[in-house]
Amino acid sequence: MTFLKFRIFLVALTLCIALGQSIVLKVGQPCPRYPNYPESTCMGIRNCTTLDEFVHQENRTLYDVVSCGISVYMELVCCPNGHNGNATASTVTPASTSSPTSPASPAVFEPQPSTTTPKETPVRSYLDNFGHLASLKYFKDEYMDDTIYSCTALIIDDYFVLTNYACRIFNNQPPLKVRLGLQTNHQQISEIKQPLKVHEFDLVAIEMFDKLNNTIAPDAKIAEFCTQADMKNYTKLFAVAFAQKNHENCDLFQKEMRMLSYGACVNVRNKERFEVNATRESHWCLQPIKSRLNTGCIKCLRGSASVLHVERSDGGICVAGIATPTADECLPLRSPLYYTSILHQTNRNFLTKYAPRLGIIEKPSIVPPSTTPSPETILPPSYIPSPCPPPATLSPRTAVPQTLSTGFSHLATLYYKDEEKLEFIYSCTGLIIDKNYVLATYACLKAAGHRPLRVRLGLLRNHQQSSEILGDPQIHNKDLFI
User: Fold this and answer.
1) What is the pTM of this model?
2) What pLDDT is attached to residue 374?
3) CA distances from 71 to 41, 75, 467 (A)
4) 52, 106, 148, 346: which has the fewest C-beta neighbours closer than 10 Å?
5) What is the pLDDT of residue 372?
């Protein structure tokens, strides 16, 4: 079985439905440059004829192939423009329509030898702006005669910080105190109230006795959380945490990350004592961009409860998740790992118990039109149905449209995972009732044995919108749901 056929088979088993790729492009658009990755163009994986050559000559794995989105029928990947075994590590913004790699002006890509030493993609420094991070204080050993600071925490309210389940204990003892603020000699230390608040062996909310005080810790602040729109239009992803040496915190570090399809984390397993349930709806799969191994303090991501940050298109930053505690060892990771999404409704509901100002995750209706186009702008001639006119105004039978696609474009289809056939299918009919909502019968809530994952709007082929379902469906009398 060729690599391409194997990858297609694997994608059918583990394809990620959410559009959480490191980039989201259209077919034919040039991809940005990545370290040690050749110039490439976004296209369907079945149509990429250079993929086998790239993988075998470079001794790569399927996880090294960059995803650029998902179409209705297949995964989209950054397909090498003619194999380049000496790709440099420069990072380039996607080219304009005059790019030589665009379909409008095709050109033969000739591999060019390069003596440039691959370097890690330049990372913009934000270390002075991470005042929303904190550290936890524990007894150093079972003798309880000395203490250390370990793990990373996130300030979510005046009285609460958030960390992951791996940091709930150290040497069988819970944390004693929280240190707020990153400026030396300007830090606030508060004792912790017990017991800790645990969410599904994944997240842990820690209550402090003292309120956040910016007079004592002027740089400490409550974290700003990302929205769904931020995740669709981000520029970069960063994991930020305290490095560790012998389990003790060192300086803060940041590591650039790239988003992978959910299936890339198929080999991530819970270690002994950990029971987190990572799902494609509530977790992301990411991988650190490779860098040289560090000595001394270890820049570990999972064991230190690193926090996933997003650089917005306007240059601002927000928080999107925390490293999922499938283990607690502090090791320099290069392989994929899970991050728990703070945007997921269930996780956000847990947070709002202790940080009310976070509110409920934003409704689809407030997402900017540029990121969530309305049906009538993306699906011509799709429309939202109006109440039926009086019988006297109905058009004669001969006026009925000749094609169903033009007469019933207010209908949608729901997307499910078929566990028996190990594939994703469209099943059940929905009705577009608003720019951001679809109505269906209660029977469609469990079609194919699972809740729907996505909605496809429009009936005209090549003019369809596939949208992720946000939050929990609203059920009415076990008859209808929105």
Assistant:
1) 0.53
2) 38
3) 15, 6, 11
4) 106
5) 39
